[in-house]
Fold this protein.
Amino acid sequence: MGHVLPPAFYDRNVVEVAIELLGKLLVSRTREGLAAGRIVEVEAYLSRRDKACHASRGRTPGNAAMFGDPGTAYVYPIHSRCCFNAVTQPEGEPSAVLVRAIEPCRGESLMKRRRGAVPEMDLARGPGRLCEALGIGRDRNKHNLTSGRGLWIEQNPGMRLSEAIYCSPRIGVTRAQDRYLRFFLLGNRYVSGPRRPPRKRRVKYQFPTRGVE
DNA sequence: GTTCGGATTATCT
DNA sequence: GATAATCCGAACC
């Protein structure tokens, strides 16, 4: 096992965590075996003030995991599928990063068994497919991602030199379309959504520059 | 109890 | 790209 991301990693602003999750390794171990992939697409959901965030309507039994500690898994069902989020902590508000796609790295045969006969590229392209490929079910809701058991995220070599982070509006949400809170590796074949997003709806992400001393 | 809409996806055109 | 399938949680009665 590699280096499991600790609670401190998640205990930061959700956008910061979302961007840094790109390139990390999402690992799932079940009785069936181990499967893992490199995170290539994420979305940030920004607590109560973000109308697209489940927590914006307050705490309910369904979204309670989002109100948990940073590093908690928030798994919720939608349209007969599951979506996987990692809870973060922006100024004490319930927020989370939705992991939308991974590039399969380990346990591809297990993923294929779970997903059926689909193109390699579609094994874990999209939040629902990703959960199916990794065997992430509702039983993982509220799972502690920092324990290194069952489901966790590992440090990874990370970004390749040729890779650039782009952002766009979040997919599938009708509200807050002016917010560019989806982050992905431009050109990566395992990223979901239209293969060529309209240029107007995507921009290169600029890392905040530190002041020159 | 019923209704309604969604952080989706497969399957069309 | 458009649509239908499908089902759960939330909101309302």
